[in-house]
Amino acid sequence: MGKEGSLKDVLEFHRQLTVVDCHCDTILEAAKGRGKLRKASETGHVDIKRMQEGGVGVQFFAAFIETTYKPFSSLTRALRLIDTFYTEVDSCGDVLAQGQNMRQIRNDLKAGRMIAVLGIEGGEALNGDLQVLRTIYRLGVRFLGLTWNQRNQLADGVGESITGGGLTNFGHEVVREMNSLGMIIDLAHISEAGFWDTLEISRHPVIVSHANCYELCNHPRNLNDDQIKALAEKRGVLGLSFVPEFLGLEIASLDGFLDHVDHVAGLVGTETIAIGSDFDGIDQTPVGLDDSRCYPRITAGLLERGYTENEIRGIMGENVLRLMDKVFRE
Predict the structure, then answer these.
(1) Is 279 helix (H, G, I), strand (E, B) or coil?
(2) What are the distances in angstroms from CA 225 to CA 100, 157, 174, 195, 213?
(3) Mean pLDDT calculated for residue range 255-279
(4) For residues 263 and 271, what is the distance between their CA atoms, to the nearest angstrom?
């Protein structure tokens, strides 16, 4: 397909893709009584109808532990959000399946069902106990963000970067145990020292589920070029986000997002690139990236910028599925 492909051709190509979004906060919205998956509405960013219209194949759902629950009620809050996740997925069981292992995920995708992958955003939910990690794995949690912006028992978050702190001894244990269990390690929000510590000891590739390029926007949540290169060397993926503050433009837009795609592609190629929208975790979205219906626009934009069909397949989802193949148990 050339740059000048018609809209019909673009949509037909998009329908052949497996779109993967590495991060949304829709569980939290559902727990507040907003944005429930089965209820199609114009509020929030993610629901079943809009996911279907956007061609979403796999959606990562993060159970975010809000600051008010830290540190003493973090585990309880995580368990309540896990319950919310199951309630939401069960209500959509005809079209949505929870992702447990790659064999099941591939089979459900072939059968036309979308996949919901459950994770926790904030290692304080572990309460300093590896048995809790193993238990939440049994409850279906398949990825864990080691930190949010703050310090916890695993590591310093990016908001604590002034300390120079990385992984704690317990954080080292968690990384190794997640490797053994087959859980995805998510390094969004972690301090730079923690990023380097984790890449040094993890046997499996990791994700940075929602961040952008520091070279284009010097926000502390974005990755610098050395981090992006190291992530690529480890066969990890960076979920480029739609967070306006991370894009570095006065008016955030689809073109601004694609500029970050271009930067990573020019630096390390396209195999490291993924999408991590942060839908339902942001108050405003870039122009053209309004909700889960937006993904065909990204496909069209990538075609216009000259990316090949194979590169686009990777960016839109196959790069993440490749990482899941390496990390998850069959």
Answers:
(1) strand
(2) 33, 19, 27, 13, 7
(3) 98
(4) 13
Task: Let me know if 135 is exposed, middle or buried by CB neighbors in 10 A (0-12, 13-18, 19+).
Answer: middle
* 3-state SS, residue 139: coil
Instruction: Write the single-letter amino acid at 143.
Output: F
**Would you state the torsion angle of the CA atoms of residues 103, 35, 33, 242, taken in this order, to the nearest 10 degrees?**
90
3-state helix, strand, coil in the chain (%, to 5): 45, 15, 40
Give the CA radius of gyration of the chain.
Answer: 18
pLDDT of 35 reads 57
Give residue limits of the domains in the chain.
7-327
pLDDT digits (tens, 9 = 90+) for 117-149: 999 999 999 999 999 999 999 999 999 999 999
Neighbouring CB atoms inside 10 A of 230's CB total 17
Q: CA 239, 101, 108, 62 torsion: positive or negative?
A: negative
Residues paired with 207 in a beta bridge: 186, 237
Q: Name the CATH code of domain 7-327 (choices 3.40.605.10, 2.30.42.10, 3.20.20.140, 3.60.70.12).
A: 3.20.20.140
- CA–CA dist 146, 55 (Å, integer): 29
What is the sign of the dihedral through the CA atoms of 135, 125, 27 and 317? negative
CB 295 within 8 A of CB 19: yes
**What per-residue string of b and e applies to 18-39 under the rule 16 or more CB within 10 Å gives b?**
bbbbbbbbbbbbbbeeebbbee
pTM: 0.96
